[in-house]
Amino acid sequence: MNKLLLVLVASLFSMTGCGESASARYDAGYSDGYAEGYNTTLKLRSTLVRGDWSDKEYSRGYNDGRASGVNDAVRKK
Fold first, then answer.
1. For 37, how many CA atoms within 13 A lie in the half-sphere containing its CB?
2. pTM greater than 0.70 (yes/no)
3. 3-state SS of the chain?
4. Residues with Cβ < 8 Å from 65, sequence gap 6 or more?
5. 43-70: average pLDDT
6. 13-42 burial by CB neighbour count: b if 16+ within 10 A, else e?
7. Among residues 54, 62, 61, which one has the least CA distance to residue 23?
């Protein structure tokens, strides 16, 4: 029984490290922001985004991506 408990606890600890890294969350935000900025500026279509505004990395990526998307769209016009 103790061995089973030890294996269970070890498995739970190993899973706590799972999740998106800060750079992956930034990249997701950047991608969403870029698509929204580009599509909105060129009036192509509405864009669905994850919108995880409580995550500072996602929000930072979104703002950077949106600025790039708007910039690229303005240059294309």
1. 22
2. yes
3. CHHHHHHHHHHHHHHHCCCCCHHHHHHHHHHHHHHHHHHHHCCCCCCCCCCCCCCHHHHHHHHHHHHHHHHHHHHHC
4. 29, 30, 31, 32, 33, 34, 35, 37
5. 95
6. eeeeeeeeeeeebbbbbbbbbbbbbbebbe
7. 61
11-41 pLDDT per residue, tens: 666 666 677 899 999 999 999 999 999 999 9
Q: Compute CA distances 63 → 2, 35, 40, 45, 66, whole Å.
A: 50, 11, 14, 19, 5
